[in-house]
Write a structure and sequence with these properties.
Layout (H helix, E strand, L loop, with lengths): L7 E6 L3 H10 L5 E7 L5 H9 L3 E3 L2 H6 L5 E4 L3 H13 L4 E3 L7 H13 L4 E3 L7 H12 L5 E9 L19 H17 L5 E8 L5 E9 L5 E7 L8 E5 L2 E5 L7 E6 L5 E4 L7 H13 L10 H18 L7
Parallel strand pairs: 1-2, 1-4, 2-3, 4-5, 5-6, 7-10
Antiparallel strand pairs: 7-11, 8-9, 9-10, 11-12, 12-13, 13-14
The structure holds NADP nicotinamide-adenine-dinucleotide phosphate.
Length: 330
């Protein structure tokens, strides 16, 4: 950001787990100020405000959205609320950074995108991975043709959680299931690498007792025969690793959703470790992109464009339709 950048005042909508980590990241951005926080749960906004020294704490979202001093709102509620919360902000002309997945389905995402575009208001899905220095470098490598032509991608994301209907991971009312929560990362990753949506999708899912996907794997095929083999689970401990295979070699990316290193293997050469750490919690990079867009008058990010967000939601809709998985109200 240049010296002429305006200070950006952030509002936080929803004071849950991820909101704390995001604001931790904001702290290292000199041009970011935390202006206000809102939570519907009694006492949460006050306690959040106390932690970060914020005076404007609200027990409803409307007051935060109507505060003229707030430049942009970070939506950190569970997936099922994203659509309603983002619509509230966009209809009040407030720019939005919305947690992943942007909505439950493509219909909701499209409506948000149309509203943002019609109202000339900034909107971005908080796919923080895209903005991390290691992923920026990875994209440079691919653009330079380091790996040759990319033919195959693998990525897995599994976290073992105790089965509990009340928690968001397993609760259909809160948009539960591993696909929307974790699978969005491998899908977004493959979309970033291939710069297109898959033309064929094959998948298999285990729908558990709480009626959401506990485990699934998906095989994508693209126009020129390239492939991606991806999976997500809320019941299995999995290495969060991705690999990209090209005609000249491959790259392994441990912890691909927040990586700090890559392992490069080119044909005829030894494996090489490339370390590219990120600062703070890593959420600072997506926040910096939002602030850059606002300071340069952009209504969407070129790194996480809205059309791509919509395409990813459509891919997840196709997967869920293959599993006959619908959320309440759909
Ligand atoms: N980027 C990342 O690395 C990352 C990591 C984790 C999660 N996320 C995303 O961030 C979002 C929030 O995840 P989280 O783990 O922070 O969620 P969380 O702590 O369970 O809940 C976040 C907020 O959602 C509202 N909420 C939760 N359960 C509710 C219920 N039963 N009824 C009404 N409101 C409820 C509450 O808002 P109030 O405070 O207003 O009451 C709560 O503070 C999700 O969409 C998730 O995908 C992103």
């Amino acid at each position: 950001m240049n010296n002429m950048s305006k200070i950006i005042k952030w509002g936080i909508l929803g004071c849950g787990r991820i909101a704390y980590k995001f604001v931790e990241g904001l702290k290292i951005l000199p041009d970011a100020i935390l202006e206000g926080v809102a939570s519907k749960t009694e006492g949460k906004a006050e306690s959040f405000g106390k932690t970060f020294g914020v005076k404007n704490t609200y027990n409803n979202y409307e007051e935060l959205v109507k505060n003229p001093a707030v430049d942009v709102i970070y939506i950190a509620t569970t997936h099922n609320f994203h659509y309603k919360n983002a619509l509230l902000c966009l209809n009040h002309g407030k720019p939005v950074l919305c947690e992943k997945p942007i909505t439950l389905n493509a219909i909701q995402a499209e409506e948000l995108i149309n509203t943002a575009r019609n109202n000339n208001v900034f909107l971005m899905e908080a796919m923080w991975t895209r903005f991390l220095p290691c992923i920026v470098k990875l994209n440079e490598f691919l653009d330079e043709g380091l790996l040759g032509e990319i033919q195959h991608v693998t990525a897995n994301f599994g976290i073992k959680k105790e089965l509990d209907h009340k928690v968001r991971s397993f609760n259909p009312d809160l948009g539960g299931g591993a696909l929307l929560d974790l699978g969005v990362y491998p899908i977004s990753f493959a979309r970033m690498i291939y710069k297109q949506a898959p033309s064929k999708i094959k998948s298999s899912a285990y729908i558990g007792k709480t009626k959401v996907d506990e485990k699934s794997c998906y095989l994508f095929e693209y126009e020129n025969g390239q492939t991606a083999m991806l999976s997500s689970s809320h019941r299995l401990i999995m290495p969060h690793d991705a690999s990209i295979f090209g005609t000249k070699g491959y790259l392994e990316i441990p912890n691909f959703y927040h990586p700090s290193k890559m392992i490069l293997k080119l044909e005829g050469k030894r494996k090489k470790k490339i370390r590219i750490p990120f600062k703070s919690t890593g959420y600072n990079y997506e926040a910096r992109e939002v602030m850059h867009c606002l300071n340069t008058g952009k209504f969407e990010s070129e790194i996480m464009p809205l059309d791509e967000t919509l395409e990813i939601m459509k891919t997840m809709d196709i997967l869920r339709s293959q599993w006959h998985l619908k959320y309440p109200g759909e």
